[in-house]
Amino acid sequence: MSIHIGNLIRQVVNEKRISVTDLAANVKLHIGSISRIYSYPSMQLDSLKKFSIALQYDFFEHYSKELNFKKEETNSQSDSEKLIESKNIEIESLKKEILYLKQINELLMKK
Fold first, then answer.
1. CB burial class (10 A; 0-12, 13-18, 19+) of residue 4?
2. pLDDT score of 75
């Protein structure tokens, strides 16, 4: 899925019912430039940041979702946490086993 940033900006502008005049003033561009931006399939990061701030919308999130980094990171963290929990349970079990073996050893030494 390719992101057409101009279409996405137009969609957000329409959803938020922001006038082109207000948007142009907020991003410090001429009104005609806004119409051209709607046709841009991509945009420089600093310009995209200006639109994100002006529209109070995180356009960068769409790129993150497309790359799937957040999801993989979360799954990896979750797997690590499960492994740590499993190892902690195993450690507790081994500590109990050591304690029992010490008690048995003490009993055998008494005989």
1. middle
2. 60
In this structure, the answer to whether residues 14 and 62 fall within a common structural domain is yes
List the Cα angle 18/55/69 in 5-degree steps: 140
Reading the block at residue 100, the tokens are: 């029992």
Question: End-to-end alpha-carbon separation of the chain, Å?
Answer: 76
Range of the domain at 17: 5-67
Q: Is the pTM of this model over 0.70?
A: no
Condensed to tens digits (0 to 9), the pLDDT of residues 53-68 reads: 999 999 988 887 777 6
Tally the domains of the chain.
Answer: 2
